[in-house]
Structure formats: C-alpha cells, structure tokens
Design a protein that fits this description.
single chain, 67 residues, mainly alpha, 5 helices, 55% helix
C-alpha cells in the first residue's frame, strides 16, 4: 500500500507536502513541467515532519531500517 494514498494526483501531492518541506525553486524547476511548477509553488510552506512521527510502529528495528 502507499505511504501517502490520495484521492487524486493533487490530493496525493498535498499529503506528501504535509509530511515534507516544500522543494526549493531549483528542485521544482528541474522537474521540467510548468504544471508541476504551478502546483508546487502554490503549496504552503510547512515544517518538516520526522519519519518516526509518520510511521506507526514501536519496532526499533523497523525505524532503524528506514533511517
């Protein structure tokens, strides 16, 4: 299953952007898509979440594997 399942492409991007900080302008431009640029630039800047807070496990081995 997806880590960030969405109901649409935009919804999935929103879910991902809620978890990570917005990419830099250079990163967005490197995608080479005017559509992606317009969508990502409209996303609000949010603080980055830690992987530990996004993954529902108390298993230290699973968290170690992800890091």
């Amino acid at each position: 299953s997806s880590m960030f399942p969405g109901t649409s492409t935009i919804n999935q991007i929103e879910r991902i952007m809620n978890a990570i900080s917005r990419p830099s302008r250079a990163d967005i431009e490197s995608i080479g898509s005017h559509y992606a640029l317009s969508v990502l630039e409209k996303m609000p800047q949010r603080p980055r979440k830690t992987l530990d807070s996004m993954i529902n496990t108390n298993n230290p081995h699973a968290l170690d594997l992800i890091h």
